[in-house]
Write a structure and sequence with these properties.
two-stranded parallel sheet; binds iron/sulfur cluster; alpha/beta; TIM Barrel; seven-stranded mixed sheet
Length: about 425
């Protein structure tokens, strides 16, 4: 490996980390603050990304890999053994010093650290743990730490990661075992799930112990998460939703992140040539929300998909479900239970909370509901209020065309 200075390593290893979706600042256009313009506020600073803490705070993280060298050859990964990319590697102490330097300058509030597999899974995990240990014990670092763990590593090492990190994640990588066998043959679904199960047990045991003894050590207090790559294999949205739901139930995950596969330089011939539409990733996040906060069962989200198991891209999954199962509508805003209000397209959890609070004191009219939502047009066919009842609008064949968002010309060179 060529001798590189810290800045060069940072450029390579921060860029290599951007494929990890589990903490990402997204939705902004790229702007550079370098060069003649000498602007400020670049969204492309090396290694700094934004993530959301469990309490909703946005925190800036130094997001890097320890190394982008890897002994594995996962087809979808730019860092795989056979990839022709520039390699770099930080030592554990270099990452510690970099984190502290960024933290003292107030650039970041924490660290997100992942790595390619250097010599063996255990060796790599030891290095990752050493970074977190040194930050916590040698430097009393109190900032946020998110560590990517390696499922093949010794469970004792993974457990040590949990003692120092706020959040740990183990990537499930692909939604189906057949996809994993095809695209990441050196990885094993049972080993990944085994590591998640061990992590869940440790998180629960420690939480129990801390209820009884305040001195019991903390263990990954922000829980565990995982990431699935979307569009690299043939898995349908239905399969992805079902897998995500199973992972939430079995392993108590805080989040499943979906990362739309993006074609990489020198891509393997088994990969699709085109990336899936980014909207697909967005629809999967919406369906994830439906299961976590809106009381939808996975089978209901799957039922909103088409015969090919794919969620529609032009409308959100909640509206797709409502259009398909119109017999559940209209819903009476003044009488329906919370579960049914949450099914109404266009009504979010906050709006439902406000409706439940307001209707204790008075009967709600269409205008009252309109004030709580972005667009009452989407809602009208699905609700009854004191002064509004749809005239069997839900029977209309062109209902989707009436309420679906209008198509917009996207920016041609948008990020
Ligand atoms: S083990 Fe991780 S870093 Fe290595 S090739 Fe596979 S996905 Fe990439």
């Amino acid at each position: 490996m060529a001798q590189l200075d810290t800045r060069e390593k940072l450029a390579i290893l921060a860029d290599a980390a951007k494929y990890d979706a589990s903490c990402a600042s997204s939705g902004t256009a790229k702007r550079s603050s370098e060069g003649k313009a000498k602007g400020i506020g670049s969204t492309e600073g090396m290694g700094i990304c934004h993530a959301y803490a469990p309490d909703g705070r946005c925190i800036s993280l130094l997001k890097i890999l320890l190394t982008n060298s890897c002994i594995f050859d996962c087809h979808y990964c730019i860092n795989r053994k056979s990839s022709n990319v520039r390699r770099a590697r930080f030592t554990a102490q270099e990452v510690v010093q970099l984190t502290l330097a960024f933290y003292r300058r107030n650039y970041i509030e924490g660290l997100f650290l992942s790595s390619g597999i250097i010599r063996s899974s255990n060796y790599t995990m030891e290095q990752i743990v050493e970074v977190a240990r040194s930050l916590r014990e040698d430097h009393q670092f109190r900032g946020y730490i998110h560590l990517k763990t390696i499922p093949d590593a010794d469970p004792e090492l993974i457990a040590q990661a949990g003692l120092h990190a706020d959040r740990v994640s183990i990537n499930v990588e692909l939604p189906t075992t057949r996809g994993l066998a095809r695209l990441a043959p050196e990885k094993s679904a049972p080993r990944i799930e085994g590591a998640m199960r061990d992590m869940k047990t440790k998180i629960e045991d420690t939480a129990d112990a801390r209820k009884r003894y305040r001195s019991a050590p903390r263990f990954a207090p922000a829980g565990q998460s995982t990431q699935m790559i979307v569009g690299a294999d043939s898995a349908s949205d239905g399969e992805i939703v079902t897998t995500a739901s199973r992972l939430y139930d079995r392993f108590g995950l805080r989040r499943v992140y979906y990362s739309a596969f993006s074609p990489i330089p020198d891509a393997s011939a088994v990969l699709p040539l085109q990336r899936p539409p980014l909207m697909r990733e967005h629809r999967l996040y919406q369906s994830d929300w439906l299961m976590r906060f809106y009381g939808f069962q996975p089978r209901e989200v799957v039922a909103a998909a088409g015969d090919d198991g794919m969620l529609p891209l032009d409308i959100d999954p909640k509206l797709a479900w409502a259009l398909k199962f119109r017999e559940h509508f209209p819903v009476d805003i003044n009488r329906a239970p919370r579960e049914m209000l949450l099914r109404v397209p266009g009504l979010g959890t906050k709006a439902v909370g406000s409706i439940l609070a307001a209707r204790r004191w008075r009967t709600l009219r269409l205008d009252d509901v309109a004030r709580l939502t972005v667009s009452v047009t989407k809602l009208r066919p699905f609700i009854v209020t004191a002064d509004w009842r749809p005239t069997l609008l839900t029977d209309k064949v062109d209902l989707k065309a009436r309420i679906a968002p209008k198509r917009e010309q996207m920016e041609l060179f948008a990020a």
